[in-house]
Amino acid sequence: MSRKRDGELADLPDHALLSIIRIPEAAKQSPWALILRRVIYAFVLLMFVTIVVYIDRAGYSEDLTFIDALYYSTVSLSTVGYGDITPVTQTARLINIIILTPARIGFLILLVGTTLSVLTEESRRALQIQRWRKRMRNHTVVVGFGTKGRSAVSALLADGVPANQIVVIDTDPASLDAAENAGLVTVRGSATKADVLRLAGVPRARAVVVAPNLDDTAVLVTLSVREIAPQAMIVASVRESENQHLLEQSGADSVVISSETAGRMLGLATVTPSVVEMMEDLLSPDEGFSIAERPIGEDEIGSNPRHLADIVLGVVRSGELYRIDSPEAETVEPGDRLLYVRRVFGEEVKNR
Predict the structure, then answer these.
(1) DSSP secondary structure string, 70-97?
(2) Taking phi first (over 0 means left), then psi (-120 to 50 degrees means alpha), and beta for anything else, what does residue 167 get?
(3) Where is the RCK N-terminal domain (predicted)?
């Protein structure tokens, strides 16, 4: 029974997911602006029909002036149809069938557009969700949009990850609203359920950040993510260090212990506050200094990373990090990546 329930969300049609998946859009226009736009569309359509009728004015029951053509178009499009002016020639009647009838339908749609707009909006959003589910690849999924999740998203955005490439999973409506306002795609539901993870595109994700408030939830989510996304990078956060091995056994590639990290920072702040200030600067990608990773240049191959222009902290080789003081980091090899301190000043900070 549980397997059947897990597959229910994934099997739902796209229009049934409107309350679950939300894709940010540009700021919506005010109702008055929408009404004005519809009035303009109706006026343009009315003038188009008037011109068509006036051009074929000889085909009607009387010779029409432009005002007569406008009058006929108005009563015809509004379906009032007084009958005082009628098409009498074959050409005029054919024009009424081919042009005026579709225009009359369009005009009615504009008049009753409030109700139809709701239906159109839902259909458009359903189509948008359908396209998103088909096209989303190599994105980052963030489970939990609390303090840790928001900080993770801020770091991703500061490092140049587009907002539309980040998907947030949460159950709290306020957190989901905050994520949507930040331009992120949101999925409402518990990330411990495989069908919710599939809706977020976890099987095709590049990385998953697991940042719930409870450690046991983090373990369950990590197990579920690893089961359906064997190739994804999983970065998880726990409060207590004794739960680190549980997350690693569940499939997390990297585990951050929030309580110990905060504790070390607090301890350092009492002895060397300037060190804490610099560490916070390094961990904030938009503050002047940041720790970043880059590929090596062709002219850097064979060099000692200590002698490069950048302040190098380590060498990443075949997915493994070698600190600058290790023997493996004595020489830079082709395909290596450098972990270094990046300098960001002035306009560069603003642009990023």
Answers:
(1) HHHHHHHHTT---SSS-B-SHHHHHHII
(2) beta
(3) 137-257
The average pLDDT across 52-75 equals 83
Does the 272-351 domain belong in CATH 3.30.70?
yes
Neighbours of 170 (CB within 10 A): 23
- DSSP assignment of 37-76: HHHHHHHHHHHHHHHHHHHTGGGBSS---HHHHHHHHHHH
**DSSP classification of residue 287:** S
Q: What's the predicted TM-score (pTM) here?
A: 0.59
* Rounded percentage of the chain residues whose pLDDT exceeds 70: 74
Architecture of the structural domain at 136-260? 3-Layer(aba) Sandwich (3.40)
**pLDDT for the residue 125:** 73
Question: DSSP of 288-320, one letter per residue?
Answer: SEEEEEEEPPGGGTTS-GGGSSSEEEEEEETTE
The first and second tokens of residue 292, run together, are 């970043």
Helices and strands (DSSP H and E) totals, the chain: 15, 11
What is the topology classification, in CATH, of domain 31-113?
Helix Hairpins (1.10.287)
Mean pLDDT of the chain: 79
Q: Where are the domains of the chain?
A: 31-113, 136-260, 272-351
Instruction: Identify the weakest region by mean pLDDT among 88-97, 185-194, 298-307.
Output: 88-97
